[in-house]
Amino acid sequence: MMNMKAEKLLLLIICFNMIFSTVICEPPTCPADLDGDCGVDNSGEWEGEFFPGIPKIKYEGPTSKNPLAYKWYNANEEILGKKMKDWMRFSVAFWHTFRGTGGDPFGAATKMWPWEDGTNSLAMAKRRMRANFEFLEKLGVDRWCFHDRDIAPDGKTLEESNANLDEIVALAKELQGTKIRPLWGTAQLFLHPRYMHGGATSPEIGVYAYAAAQVKKAIEVTHYLGGENYVFWGGREGYQTLLNTNMERELDHMARFFEAAVAYKKKIGFTGTLLIEPKPQEPTKHQYDWDAATAANFLRKYGLIDEFKLNIECNHATLSGHSCHHELETARINGLLGNIDANTGDPQVGWDTDQFLMDVSEATLVMISVIRNGGLSPGGFNFDAKLRRESTDVEDLFIAHIAGMDTLARGLRNAAKLIEDGSLDELVRKRYQSFDSELGAQIEAGKADFDLLEKKAIEWGEPKVPSGKQELAEMIFQSAM
């Protein structure tokens, strides 16, 4: 027979896991109350700081051993003529940081943050929002990202959901002040059962209309909060089997949906960038924005190429069979690189693990693309990453973000070294120097037909093919690490 503490803890675990599935349970005694004061008074307000004992995070340099300090990210330091903070434009993801429970398909929640009371009430939503802005202030980050249903509870009707969102957004507007704003907002069109077949690609017109109404509201609140971008992630916009799917019709419907979003954005004067976030599968077997190239092709086909950019997530790149660097370069050369969801996956785990990016080599490749792109503004780096299930201390939230920011800062420093040194660029230039000729210019201008090329092939005979120097390229790259 369980004792009282064990019963309370079990109830907490059950409730937190239910919240993860958007089911509201009755409020249990809060975690801190198992040992004493919870920090919440009878009105539901939080007393004092959410992160007591955590100072404002400062730059202390590479020799620092302090886990709550930046070693490589020095916000105002100039790299290649631009402040580090302007290259990065870091953002905190509300859903992972303040709604992540540590639950997974095989286990219940593990994270019992002291300010949580086990409900999905408006009072609880307000506490989370206050915790979010204290976290941003202490971390020294002035951007955040959100899904509509993560920051405010779903209501019984669309009108009630909108009213809940309005109440939380009003508080967020107050807490933002003049310095903080959303990097982007989005609508959660994947968790609720109504979206089991998708939103913009649902075969049911009522769901299509509901999804449009939800996106309309999410764009409005993103605009109201001063958001710089708006993201579409189509986790359910795809299929499980083609046997019951009219792919052509669904793609047409999705295009019409995006056209309506563009029209509404312009109607209300929202100047932020609309972003599409590619992902190949999970939760559906096949999603229509599989990778950067697929998304670019979709946008071109439907005449939307000038209205959208892409939000590239590194873990999604892995799932599509590409490297993050490949996806960034594909987006960049198509003029579509708008934002980066900074995370990574485990190469031994075949799903979207959303880990903080800690690989300096990977970060260096990422920053090479960002520098070539001239930066990301008005996009940035959003930490769409979550603590490991086993990391349960409040300070772990800070440590994870600090480490992620330091890793990308090291990547920026390394990329700058490589560019300033010029050896890698020179190696690439030499590899293509045969095209820096009269005939090469004709080919690249589209003025060399097959007759001319055949004449040159006969004149020159068997070509001599030079070495690709891959190992030298890798040596130069590693020398910057």
From TrEMBL:
<dbReference type="InterPro" id="IPR001998">
    <property type="entry name" value="Xylose_isomerase"/>
</dbReference>
<keyword id="KW-0413">Isomerase</keyword>
<keyword id="KW-0859">Xylose metabolism</keyword>
<keyword id="KW-0479">Metal-binding</keyword>
<keyword id="KW-0963">Cytoplasm</keyword>
<protein>
    <recommendedName>
        <fullName>Xylose isomerase</fullName>
        <ecNumber>5.3.1.5</ecNumber>
    </recommendedName>
</protein>
<dbReference type="GO" id="GO:0009045">
    <property type="term" value="F:xylose isomerase activity"/>
</dbReference>
<keyword id="KW-0732">Signal</keyword>
<dbReference type="InterPro" id="IPR036237">
    <property type="entry name" value="Xyl_isomerase-like_sf"/>
</dbReference>
<feature type="domain" description="Xylose isomerase-like TIM barrel">
    <location>
        <begin position="137"/>
        <end position="326"/>
    </location>
</feature>
<keyword id="KW-0119">Carbohydrate metabolism</keyword>
<dbReference type="GO" id="GO:0046872">
    <property type="term" value="F:metal ion binding"/>
</dbReference>
<dbReference type="InterPro" id="IPR013022">
    <property type="entry name" value="Xyl_isomerase-like_TIM-brl"/>
</dbReference>
<dbReference type="InterPro" id="IPR013452">
    <property type="entry name" value="Xylose_isom_bac"/>
</dbReference>
<dbReference type="Pfam" id="PF01261">
    <property type="entry name" value="AP_endonuc_2"/>
</dbReference>
<feature type="signal peptide">
    <location>
        <begin position="1"/>
        <end position="25"/>
    </location>
</feature>
<comment type="similarity">
    <text>Belongs to the xylose isomerase family.</text>
</comment>
<dbReference type="GO" id="GO:0042732">
    <property type="term" value="P:D-xylose metabolic process"/>
</dbReference>
